[in-house]
Amino acid sequence: MAQEYRLILQHADEPGYTNDIECYLRHGGYEGLKKALALEPKTLEDGSVKSGPEQIRDEVRTSGVRGRGGAGFPAARKWGFINHNSGKPIYLICNADESEPGTFKDRQIIYKDPHQMLEGTIIACYANNVHLAYIYIRGEFHEGAEILNRAIREAKEKNFIGKNIQGSGYDLELYLHRGAGAYICGEETGLLESLEGKRPYPRIKPPYFPAAYGLYMCPTIVNNVETLCCLKHVMLMGGAEYAKLGTPNNTGTRIVCVSGTVKRPGYYEVEVGKVTIRELIHDFAGGLPEGRSLQAVIPGGSSAKVFRAGEKFQIKKKAGDGQETVEMDLEDLPYDFDTVVEAGSMSGSGAVMVLDDSVDMIEAIANIAEFYAHESCGQCTPCREGSLWLKKALQRLAHGRGRKEDADYILRIADNIPNGRTICAFGEATAWPVQSTVRKFREVFEARGAEDEARRARETEGAGGVGKEMDVAASSQP
Amino acid sequence: MTNVTAERQEKSAVETVSVWIDGQAYDVPKTMPHPVSGEQVGTTMIQACHMHGIDVPYYCYHPKLPVAGNCRMCLVEFGTPALGPDRQPLYNEDGSPQIRKSPRPVIACATPISPGMAIYTQTPEAKQMRESVLEFLLINHPLDCPICDQAGECKLQEYAVDYGKADSRFVEQKVHKPKQVDLGPRIMLDDERCILCSRCIRFTRDIAGDDALGFADRGSYSILTNYPGKPFDNNYTLNTADICPVGALTSKDFRFQMRVWFLKETKSVCTSCGTGCNIMIGSRNDRIYRYTPRENDAVNSCWMCDYGRLNYKWINREDRLREVQQRRDGAPAKTNWSVALKEVAERIESSPSGSIGVVASARLTNEELYLVRRLVQDKDAITDSVPRMGEADHLLVDADKNPNTNGAHATGIAAKKVGADIATIADRIRQGKIKTLLVFGEDVTKHGIEADLLKELDTLVVSDILPNATTERADYLLPGCAHAEKRGTFTNAKGRVQKFMKAIEGPGDARPEWEFLHELVQRKTHDGGSANLPALFNEMAEQVPAFHGLSWGELKDTGAQASL
Ligand SMILES: Cc1cc2nc3c(=O)[nH]c(=O)nc-3n(C[C@H](O)[C@H](O)[C@H](O)COP(=O)(O)O)c2cc1C
Ligand code: SF4
Ligand code: SF4
Ligand code: SF4
Ligand code: FES
Questions:
Q1: For atom 8 of ligand 3, which residue has the closest CA?
Q2: Chain-wide mean pLDDT for chain A?
Q3: Which CATH number covers residue B96?
Q4: What was the pLDDT predicted at B94?
Q5: Which residue from A108, A240, A258, B43 puts its CA 20 to 30 A from B92's CA?
């Protein structure tokens, strides 16, 4: 039976553990930061000197920590793009916008262990010569914002934030900024625009890569809440020790959110790659309801491409010095960054959504499409128009007004949105679930369209042939 | 604007790089000036393509605005040179560089070129991407071209023909949005037609300096809007109607007036201030329907102010002067040009030296002012123009509301301080020294020579376009032409000599001033010089030092600098 490995959530759910600073300090809180600040400059063999912050960046590189916000990009590599000699201030933003459907991990940290998140953020700031940082928190987290503001106040009072932190000479100001309820504010450049007080229109890249032209056109690092929390543990354990957790290139632990038709939906912190999808569903989430069988899994939040039960995947594995390809069942896939990508999807925000055979796939995907049509910022043409078109077509099909050709019709819309045609990855997020669902469940879509057509034909016959050319759009939603 | 222009003109030695566009090598400058800051920034793919005449369609891109990259019409495929293990480019057998094609397309309007880059604008993928963007733009578009003012100038219409597919697959209900939105005193908005390209937003924010427009709502329901309760009202709003690629923003003045394809377009300049913005006059059947700005990077970029744009209606006014008149027995009576010009020429010829005064408007052309000067050259006449000073702004509007003050200086008509000599003229009339006053295009009763004083004159010769207190008192009244009704040149506030062409005929007997001035000079001196405008300009350029070296032909469409 697979086991959780609680590192970040070590204390969060312990009875009596509270989210104030005193409790955090009693549990070894801010020791990682103190260790970071205490690092002395190191003289290397070639005579060059490595500052404390540079040593932390090295540790993070060694740890292999990858972003937990969605793309799985190595944190140290992202930091490596920052030019420390541009003469401009460097900003860091903690992305606490957690809005990806199916994802509820960051909020566990924010609500139950806010100081851990602050500690990670402060370490990251120190490591990158940042003196002004922001936490961008999802608008709906009212209480979370209060908790974090109190935590920031407490940390200031104890001089973990502010001037001359713990006597180190290092200054950092940290502010919380609340969003107003838009998913796109989680996209890092949309977030930056929002933070600057504008509409969260994601920026075009090139030229506006955050590392070069971020907040107020200054070099900026955006990291996810969970990613930043990892840093505290990297600091305490050392990068090499941390990298022993999980699997090669997929190090550490991850908080996986399992939802959908499982008996015990919830969040489970596991070593990356050490548990399979089957174990997530059965060992942790208690399996499917009685008498049900698995139909599909969405492995990384609603933006990820769906897996269909029974799918087989060709996965490359290290074998001796070379590589071998092994065939794997969906449920045998280890839940990590690389394998899920190799299987054609992504682990994204770490949200595993389970759909058993009671779920109508057309309704499910219509529901997801509705979300994206509502959240598209509307800036660029393919996503703005395509997301609503998809929603309308899928809802039409879900509401009994389908046509035989709708599978192709929907695919042609979806195929015109992703792969660099849009400004931001929201385009992919809109298209991928639809493309994969229609392609993998094509017969379901075709059968539904044919059924609807046949029913309409019967109805028109019954009505004496009135209104032969039924207007399929007649009552579609606005 | 000045700095930008100056920098742009500066032929700084910009490095060129070689790029491959659709399989052919082209040289392009590595950097180009940013449309707003003027700073040198990386040349983009679209600039590289357009400078070599290679078509890349676009909606949101505008050469004079910061890039937004939102329409995605300009998506192209591209590749970069493949490098060997030694980081050196790899070559094919035929010597061409090996290209590593990118799996993802990019927008040509925002992506900078790099040496050896290959850009593909015509691959099946590139064409398919355009087609799909167009389809997306059209699904919710009302397609009411028959009643849309933009029809004929609409980039959606144009590209739908060039890049679109005929059949529409869309079977859902269209999104409905506000129509006939009153954005401000001069601009109407149809949100259903808006393709959300943000050109108008960027123009008013980044060029006009008034952050007045923005988008509201999300996704496909997004709409363009002004701030609630704050009308879109600055002196440059109408430029947004020009740059709107579709018929979403329309000029209240022009909408529903005339189908654009019926309009004759004539190159001209605005006369409402010393800037001399280059314009197109849109006319039909000798009536003016609109002015639109014409690009001239040395003067007005692509813009003009609303005031200047709408200041054309006086040309079509009913009370235009259309008869040549001569006062007989105290009352004006109709006469004809040959009689009037003969008599005026004789009057001038027979006037003793020092007895003639001239007020010639700085709204006359260089050629006309030059001829006025010649007409009274040997008469020791006092000449001047009327000053028209007002307010300047940060973008285009000049404080001087005369279009040709520098021409009036160059030809020796205006006093050093424009208008300073009008008082002297008035004094000398009062003293009985000046007996003949020639007035061109000004109501002198409003500018220092009172109506009663005009009675003291033996002869008052007046040429003008519209009636006023001075024309009423004329002994000889010569109806002139608006700039739209003639050819000529003005010298703008920065000394740029700019020519304009004739768009419409003048009313009745009205004649271009330069024509009858030429005849007057001819009659008086028996040497009128050149009888057609280009030759007249060239003659003037020889005679007037400020214009030395210029020629009508070389002024081209955008003018040339005088040496003031
Ligand atoms: C549409 C969209 C929504 C996103 N929402 C979030 C979010 O809510 N939280 C988050 O941390 N990252 C989100 N991301 C990813 C961020 O853009 C960014 O990659 C991430 O914050 C980087 O942090 P990491 O490197 O630590 O993962 C989103 C991305 C996209 C395209
Ligand atoms: S892809 Fe969608 S969300 Fe992203 S910028 Fe374009 S319209 Fe906005
Ligand atoms: S009104 Fe015209 S210029 Fe403005 S965003 Fe819409 S389409 Fe573009
Ligand atoms: S700035 Fe001057 S020249 Fe230009 S349009 Fe306005 S009034 Fe005319
Ligand atoms: S022209 Fe390039 S995206 Fe609009």
A1: B197
A2: 95
A3: 3.10.20.740
A4: 82
A5: B43
Chain A CB within 8 Å of residue B133 CB: yes
Q: Please write down the HEC assignment for all residues of B239-268.
A: HHHHHCCCCCEEECCCCCCCCHHHCEEEEE
Cβ of B71 within 8 Å of Cβ of A384? The answer is no
- pLDDT recorded at residue A471: 53
Measured in Å, residue B128 CA sits from the centre of ligand 5 at 16
For the stretch B154-206, pLDDT in tens is 888 888 888 877 667 889 999 999 999 999 999 999 999 999 999 999 999 99
pTM score, whole prediction: 0.94
Whether residues A385 and A437 fall in one domain: yes
Give the Å distance between the CA of B191 and the centre of ligand 3: 9
Phi-psi group of A119: left, alpha or beta (phi > 0 → left; psi -120 to 50 → alpha; rest → beta): alpha
Q: Do B219 and A377 touch (CB under 8 A)?
A: yes
Q: Based on the domain organization, do A235 and A274 belong to the same domain?
A: no
pLDDT confidence band for B258 (50 / 70 / 90)? confident
DSSP letter, residue A20: S
Tell whether the model's pLDDT for residue B47 goes beyond 60.
yes
**Residues 6+ away with beta carbon under 8 Å from A50:** A41, A42, A43, A44, A58
Provide, rounded to the nearest whole percent, the portion of chain B with pLDDT above 70.
97
Instruction: State the Cα torsion B321-B326-B329-B333 to the nearest 10°.
Output: -50
- Of the candidates A214, A243, A272, which is a domain's last residue? A243
Contact between residue A185 and residue A136 where contact means Cβ atoms under 8 Å apart? yes
The answer to whether residue B369 is domain-embedded is yes
Which of B316, B336, B370 lies at the terminal end of a domain, its last residue? B316
Distance (Å) from the C-alpha of residue A130 to the closest C-alpha of chain B?
28
Q: Domain for residue A3, yes or no?
A: no
- Whether A420 has a pLDDT exceeding 80, the answer reads yes
* A386: CATH: 1.20.1440.230
The secondary structure element, H or E, covering residue B19 is strand B16-21
Mutate to test the interface with A, among B70, B78, B128 (most CBs of A within 10 A): B70
Residue B527 pLDDT more than 90?
A: no
Band (pLDDT 50/70/90 cuts) for residue A475 is very low
| 8 A C-beta contact, residue A262 and residue A274 | no
Distance CA B377, CA B520 (A): 13
Instruction: List the domain range (segments joined by +) for residue A400.
Output: 361-462
CA of B70 to the centre of ligand 2 (A): 9
Residue B197 maps to which CATH number? 3.30.70.20
Identify which of B105, B214, B222 has the shortest CB distance to residue A421. B105
B398 in helix, strand or coil?
Answer: coil
Which residues in chain A are closer than 8 Å to B105, comparing Cβ atoms? Answer: 419-421
* B286 lies in the same domain as B361: no
* Most distant pair of Cα atoms in chain A: their distance: 94
Whose structure tokens read 């003196």? A131
Pair (A137, A273) in one structural domain:
no
As a whole number of angstroms, the distance between CA B459 and CA B442 comes to 16
User: Which chain B residues have a beta carbon less than 8 Å from that of A182?
Assistant: 218
- Range A110-113 contact pairs with CB under 8 angstroms and sequence separation of 24 or more: A110/A137, A110/A141, A110/A144, A110/A147, A110/A148, A110/A225, A111/A19, A111/A143, A111/A144, A111/A147, A112/A12, A112/A13, A112/A17, A112/A19, A113/A8, A113/A9, A113/A11, A113/A12, A113/A17, A113/A19, A113/A24
Q: What is the pLDDT of residues B455-504, one digit of tens each?
A: 999 999 999 999 999 999 999 999 999 999 999 999 999 999 999 999 99
Last residue of a domain, one of B249, B284, B316: B316
- The pLDDT > 90 percentage for chain A reads 94
Output the six-digit token pair for A341.
């990508």
Q: B308 with B270: CB under 8 angstroms? A: yes
Q: What CATH number has the domain bearing residue A307?
A: 3.10.20.600
